[in-house]
Amino acid sequence: MKRLLPGFLLLAAVSIAAGTAHAQSEVYLCVDQNGVKEYKNTGDTKGCKRVSLPPLTVTSSGSKPAREGAAASKPAASTPTDFPKVDNGTQKTRDNDRRQILQDELKNEQQRLADLKKDYNDGTPERQGNEKNYAKYQERVASMKEDISRSEKNIDALNRELSNLK
């Protein structure tokens, strides 16, 4: 029995240590020539600086997540009695302002997309004077393609927001 006790204590210590893990990694803030900031886990590109972050500790809870049935049986949270109320006229004005702002943003984003597509020229934009190196040209074309994709996603998101208002 005395011979089993050290092994049992070692096993208990290992299982306790396995329950707590430290997640630590280096994080770099990279800024490209256009001023776009991006966080990366490697700082091997130009314009990257290491960011000092406080250590994170990840622990395992050991419990299973609640099932949908358990979550559905909880009563809905009610609004406190002293919560400020807004009259219908004010709310309609706010909704109309929001709709107008979203429509303006949508119009601007659609114009931006049209300009980007015009410059992109179906994947063959005109080369600029500083792009004697073909790799620089390809990099700019890839960046333009990403900008077009981002703009299309913004338009989709604005259309979703507008459809939720109606």
UniProtKB/TrEMBL annotation:
<keyword id="KW-0732">Signal</keyword>
<protein>
    <recommendedName>
        <fullName>DUF4124 domain-containing protein</fullName>
    </recommendedName>
</protein>
<feature type="domain" description="DUF4124">
    <location>
        <begin position="18"/>
        <end position="63"/>
    </location>
</feature>
<feature type="compositionally biased region" description="Basic and acidic residues">
    <location>
        <begin position="92"/>
        <end position="135"/>
    </location>
</feature>
<feature type="signal peptide">
    <location>
        <begin position="1"/>
        <end position="23"/>
    </location>
</feature>
<feature type="compositionally biased region" description="Low complexity">
    <location>
        <begin position="70"/>
        <end position="81"/>
    </location>
</feature>
<dbReference type="InterPro" id="IPR025392">
    <property type="entry name" value="DUF4124"/>
</dbReference>
<feature type="region of interest" description="Disordered">
    <location>
        <begin position="52"/>
        <end position="135"/>
    </location>
</feature>
<dbReference type="Pfam" id="PF13511">
    <property type="entry name" value="DUF4124"/>
</dbReference>
